[in-house]
Amino acid sequence: MKNFLIVARSFSDIHEKYVNVIRDYIKAHGGMCILDLDTCSDSSDEPISVADDVQCIITVGGDGTVVRVAQNITNRNVPIVGLNCGHLGYLCDMTVDNIEHCLDQLLNDNYKLDTRMMLEGDCSNDSGNHFRALNDIVVAPVAAGLYVLNLTVKVNGIQLYNHNCDGLIVATPTGSTAYNLSANGPIVSPHADCLILTPINPHTLNSRSIILASSDEVEVTIEARHDEDDPQANIVYDGTLRQTLKKGEKLRIYQSDTTSHMVMLENVNFLERIRARMQEI
Amino acid sequence: MKNFLIVARSFSDIHEKYVNVIRDYIKAHGGMCILDLDTCSDSSDEPISVADDVQCIITVGGDGTVVRVAQNITNRNVPIVGLNCGHLGYLCDMTVDNIEHCLDQLLNDNYKLDTRMMLEGDCSNDSGNHFRALNDIVVAPVAAGLYVLNLTVKVNGIQLYNHNCDGLIVATPTGSTAYNLSANGPIVSPHADCLILTPINPHTLNSRSIILASSDEVEVTIEARHDEDDPQANIVYDGTLRQTLKKGEKLRIYQSDTTSHMVMLENVNFLERIRARMQEI
Amino acid sequence: MKNFLIVARSFSDIHEKYVNVIRDYIKAHGGMCILDLDTCSDSSDEPISVADDVQCIITVGGDGTVVRVAQNITNRNVPIVGLNCGHLGYLCDMTVDNIEHCLDQLLNDNYKLDTRMMLEGDCSNDSGNHFRALNDIVVAPVAAGLYVLNLTVKVNGIQLYNHNCDGLIVATPTGSTAYNLSANGPIVSPHADCLILTPINPHTLNSRSIILASSDEVEVTIEARHDEDDPQANIVYDGTLRQTLKKGEKLRIYQSDTTSHMVMLENVNFLERIRARMQEI
Amino acid sequence: MKNFLIVARSFSDIHEKYVNVIRDYIKAHGGMCILDLDTCSDSSDEPISVADDVQCIITVGGDGTVVRVAQNITNRNVPIVGLNCGHLGYLCDMTVDNIEHCLDQLLNDNYKLDTRMMLEGDCSNDSGNHFRALNDIVVAPVAAGLYVLNLTVKVNGIQLYNHNCDGLIVATPTGSTAYNLSANGPIVSPHADCLILTPINPHTLNSRSIILASSDEVEVTIEARHDEDDPQANIVYDGTLRQTLKKGEKLRIYQSDTTSHMVMLENVNFLERIRARMQEI
Residues in the active site (chains A, B, C, D) (predicted)? Predict the structure, then answer.
């Protein structure tokens, strides 16, 4: 590959430094670069349109930056490789110590691609928009700790449960190590073909994470609670607030036709990252 | 006891009906009543001042109404007995089926008192106010699922942990079956003398509820996260928002000098309620 | 289908009664039956050889009987349908109330088949035998609560963790509601294509169930603990003890080439059974 | 204090080396020592009778050695201090790096005592013996992963639950970080006054650790399972098998009149040990 788009989280000198390192190295070795430094903050929901000749996107930041790019690309399924400038992550194969080695592999077409499923969500009150997520789609109360949601969850049209809870996570295997892990959900290998349904703080003793087939469709209905006139839920895609739902409104979540393509450069695989995480302070 | 204050959640005909039933029965049997129908909605934070001659407060609603009254009484430690008009609860000994029997016991001084510890919280940014809770004091993000908190938790001045999380619950034994149960904390008998410290959705594998001595003091500091300029936490007392904290500000939580006195009328004890709850649909 | 093998747990009058009901009905409607009443107790490990003309096996007992049959058939992949004589289960479509209706469907070829993956295990000390499981393969100490195991777990040759623990469960989706559920593992739809790796009482804070791709291979090594001279583990296939391992010996667990075929008669699907279970006392 | 009993796990050179170091130092500084090198292996259940003039017991080994000594002392409540030769523990204040400093403190009476509650168990089939535990009393199946127990658990005579499970742990706060931690129970400060009731692998979704008052009495009955003729449970005190129970037999567990006295030498308290453990690999 010779033509790269470099996308960075914009707010830090450290990111800018590594953007320059990458750009200079690519140019010095016969490649070309486009830079995009402003569209990818944590809460950004700007669509990213990738020019026709771009063969690969290099993100500078961390797992969050990779997720943001995967979520917001609108036009093309370009392979993504992440440079991790911070904490241990799961999605970034480049670190500040192996940049040149990794760029050599990219420039010499010495890599594999890992395809990751994505989720898509439709709201019943939607005016036409539906959104995508690489990690998870989360139904959350507008104010945590104050208002409890009452959610009815159906899978393929069949009611699974109705809970008073703080919300619900529908995660991909990629997202199993994100919010799902915090909510006590299982860790899932990216090559297991499934969805993870994890309730957030359900007020019941008999709840548990449920692993569904990736082809299953989840429907969440915001029910009224006996003592609230105006229940509302935020619908959060990969950490970005996209929609709100009122009482009686529904959200459908299902596997997207779009997939993400992660460049695999190093021989560090998912299990080694899990092991490292289990040993982390 | 002859002199009662009846406090009800105000928004429903059913509550008003039972208030009248209770009042009429007490008057017909030589007692006296004061009514207070407006101060006790779920989110109320009005202080409740109890007149000198009131010997007992009867609440009409559910566990939430008992909690609200216990939390907001300012001047006197009056015994409280709850009428439960709704779902199975832990704090209400009266049900719609045993009202007259229970009132007879009260009027004939045939009851026991159960003393429950309460919590108190002080914010470092506080202008003099500190608040009380019967169930729990919760540190929660201003928007769940969107912003993660970074909290440092100390006990008696010694750091216990620093977590990225959705928040923290410090609960009394009474509150162990409230939000603490949703966040996967243990169930605690009201007669165990302890505090429960339960993190809410910590982004780590190695967290667990920790039971402290009731005399231990918990301090929570709102830390800055690397990618957020304005972290803020809600401090929620028994489900009522009382304070907000900014980066660097602290909350101290400790056992209150004030206790609550619950009237014990029936022989149904805590363990039978736990068993019923474990068998609940 | 016209030719059936009926297999029952042998120790009870109730099972014999229903065996007779089924046999009589099948014969009266033009079918044929072979009975096998002795090979299928809970701890049976007798191979079941199915005659050439048998088209379907009907089990009389419960989920355990279905599992035992699926595990022990040696020669042919015959569809299995279970009659549930006891508690709510996941694998039996026939109940004592719908026997005739179900038999009509079988006799009229009005059914679907559900294919379930199975596991296979090889011990490094093995003299040629390897065993199969429909639910799970469990590594357990020879005496629980007394001797802790130290296990090293690798996936596809890469070390995942080393734990002091009571053991390890490798479960299929079918087995997710069996021992895996007790050990706090997630519930998994039978149509999710994966393995579940759940440690049993690991003496660590940072463990969690891990969902693997069904093609992943798990290797468990029995390590020496510092203070034990003779560590030993039982290897338990679907609840039946098959092998024991000594210090340094290994067990490989992987997806079997053999699958089980469950007859689907009713429209009650897995999710409705999960919902019923969540509401069970 | 001048008169010490040194108790060591007997099977290792390293333990003998430190026994000699301690003895020589004490003698050189005017104290006296008795050695006991054979009674304290992990599975030992020999009663330890402490001579009248012994003022303090020094254990050489780890937490397990402290527990074994506390459990088996029959005659006197002598303070115990542990030397930790191995992994991070909770009960040992001496490490191989601070031996002389700690011995100076002991010899100069510069220490505090920490009183720890103990448990006692009575079996209904008992011929007069009852046993004590510092950490926990565990009801476990005679063979894990093979036979499930059906247990009825009562507290103060009131039924709490009936579970199919692998067993039950009743732990002291001291024991909360032992087997209880493995079975997903909460961590409990030694100064919280309570018991912890944690089921082991219950085959139900709606179970949870329950914290009881230290004065509560737990009764466990071994019930028959429908498909087993001879259910049996091991009763394990601090990891030592003491009794077995048959169907219909009961075990009563309650706070012992005896307490253990741990010498506090260092300013490292329980919370710092918990923090270290949470950060451990």
Answer: 63
